[in-house]
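Project standup — Tuesday

K.O.: blocked on the structure for the chain from last sprint. Re-posting the sequence here as requested.
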Amino acid sequence: MKIFKQTLLAFIAIMCFVSCDKDDSESKNELETKASINAKWVVEGTSEFKSFEFNESGNYIIVKEGTVKSSASNSILFGTYEYDADQTITLSEFGTIKISDYGTDHMNFVVELKDGTEEPVSLKATKKEEMGSSERTDLLCRSWKLIRINDVNVEGTEEEITVLFSKAGTYFVEFVNPNPDVLGGLAEWSWSNSSKTAINYSWTQYGEGGTFDIVELTDNSLKILEEFEGEESEMSTLVPLNN
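H.V.: unblocked you, prediction finished:
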């Protein structure tokens, strides 16, 4: 009987160890998946959706088919997201994404709208190629909020904006308090020099672009200097959105 009890206890201990090891492995896989979905995913084939993008700040951008690519239109959706343990992404004010297949460069998933107005849609997407990682690129690529222009507080005004940069080259601007005459929207960006102290950007939908200087870039602050021909230059101060 004593030998039987010892054997039983040893068996229980082994099962507990295997169970804990399995749980740790599953948790690790889920954390890896959560981290690696932070990218821009371009939808394949014909769909009302063109792309889905997620970042480490917990924000998403969905681009839908449309002619006007501004944040004031329904063709660009912006919000926050949460990744659940069962490979489900919950997107605020939109719905859910349930991942059915995932790889380093592809993701298959089902989109379900929050309001239930449409049937679930199955989509396949590929990961857009990203620029290389560097200290300054990693610091810049997140969600920011504008708090001052030329040392004047803009929080709560029509000039308050949310800004997002990503390694996929996304430069997104959304006005917190929208004015119909001034639209944000979706642009592209890239470093304009090897020292990564200036940025080129282009608003494809408007056919416009420009360059601005990054005069300060830390984990807690971003300062942008932009020159305007015949006008006063602007120093914009931003802080991480999730502060």
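K.O.: great, moving the ticket to review. The longest strand covers residues 208-217. The chain has a mean pLDDT of 85.
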